[in-house]
Specification:
Strand content: 5-15%
Structural class: little secondary structure
Protein name: HlyD family secretion protein
Number of helices: 0
Organism: Dyadobacter frigoris
Distance between the termini: 32 Å
Shape: flat
Number of strands: 2
Radius of gyration: 16 Å
Helix content: under 10%
Number of domains: 1
Strand order of the largest sheet: 1-2
């Protein structure tokens, strides 16, 4: 059993396949706080600019070596 240090939602950081080789250092999950608002700086390709709107809800995919901070 794995116990989290805080309440939150467990999210996958990588797609896994059956019998996939993993290293002990691979990060598979992240714990995202519940009921939190996130602010993100994103790069949107020019061809996707017409689809982006201020205040739009999005799905963020987390990547390795992600730098996160939280303002209080």
């Amino acid at each position: 059993m794995i116990t989290a240090p805080a309440d939150g939602k467990l999210v996958f950081l990588k797609n896994l396949a059956e019998n996939q080789y993993l290293k002990a250092t691979d990060t598979l999950f992240a714990l995202m706080p519940v009921e939190e608002t996130f602010i993100a700086a994103v790069d949107i390709p020019v061809r996707g600019m017409g689809k982006a709107r201020i205040g739009q809800k999005v799905i963020l995919k987390l990547m390795r070596n992600l730098v996160c901070w939280k303002e209080r």
